[in-house]
Write a structure and sequence with these properties.
By secondary structure, this protein is an alpha/beta fold. Helices cover 26% and strands 13% of the residues. It has a five-stranded mixed beta sheet with strand order 2-1-3-5-4.
C-alpha cells in the first residue's frame, strides 16, 4: 500500500489554500502595546484590555471616550445655548454682564430657559459636541468665532442655520457694548429670530 504522507511543497499547496501563520505561544499571553492617534479626550485603557487571548494574528484595542461635563449657568429648559468667551471672568466684566442681561430680557428669556457657558474653559470643544450635550435649537455666541467651533466662516450678527440649529455670532460682550452698529444689527437679528 502506498503512503499518503507527502513532503512535496507543490502537493501540499493543493490542500492548504489559506495562509498559515506561525504564532509564538509566548507572544499570546503578553500584553500588546498599540498606539492609537491622540484624540481630544480619552481615558487610559488598562493593559488587560489589550491582551490577545486567542492564538490568531489579531489585535484588540479598547479606547473609551471620556464624557465631558460642562459647568454652565441656567436650566436650559428651552434648549438655548449662550456662549461667552472670557478667560478672566466667569461670564464677563460688569458692563458685559449688564449688556447680556439686556439682551436676554429683550427676547423674554429667563435663566430657566437657557444654558450660559463660558467657552474659554472649553476652547477645543466643537459645535457638534455642544449641540449634542445641550440639545440646542438656538445658539448665541459672543466672542466665539464659527471657526473655533469647527464651522465655516459666517458674518457677525446674522442668523445662520446649521441643520435645524439657528446660530448668531457676535463680538465679545465688552466689545459689543462699545459698538453701536453691532448692537443695532444684533437687535435686528433677535427680532427676526422669533423667540
Amino acid at each position: 500500500m502506498v503512503s499518503q504522507l507527502s513532503t512535496n511543497g507543490e502537493a501540499l499547496r493543493l490542500f492548504f489554500t489559506e495562509d498559515i501563520y506561525f504564532v509564538n505561544e509566548a507572544f499570546i499571553n503578553e500584553p500588546v502595546m498599540i498606539e492609537a492617534p491622540v484624540a481630544k479626550s480619552f481615558t487610559e485603557v488598562p493593559a488587560e484590555a489589550l491582551i490577545v487571548t486567542e492564538p490568531q494574528v489579531a489585535f484588540k484595542a479598547a479606547i473609551v471616550e471620556e464624557k465631558i461635563e460642562f459647568k454652565f449657568l441656567g436650566k436650559n429648559k428651552r434648549h438655548i445655548l449662550i456662549l461667552v468667551n472670557d478667560d478672566q471672568h466667569d461670564v464677563s466684566d460688569e458692563t458685559g454682564r449688564e449688556l447680556l442681561r439686556k439682551i436676554v430680557k429683550s427676547v423674554n428669556l429667563t435663566a430657566d430657559d437657557f444654558a450660559l457657558l463660558n467657552y474659554a474653559k472649553y476652547s477645543n470643544t466643537s459645535f457638534a459636541l455642544l449641540k449634542e450635550y445641550f440639545n440646542s435649537g438656538v445658539v448665541f455666541a459672543f466672542g466665539v468665532s464659527p471657526s473655533a467651533l469647527g464651522l465655516a466662516v459666517h458674518p457677525e450678527n446674522t442668523i445662520i442655520h446649521e441643520g435645524v440649529v439657528k446660530l448668531i455670532f457676535s463680538a465679545g460682550l465688552p466689545q459689543l457694548n462699545e459698538d453701536a452698529n453691532g448692537k443695532k444689527a444684533l437687535w435686528g437679528c433677535l427680532k427676526n429670530l422669533g423667540l
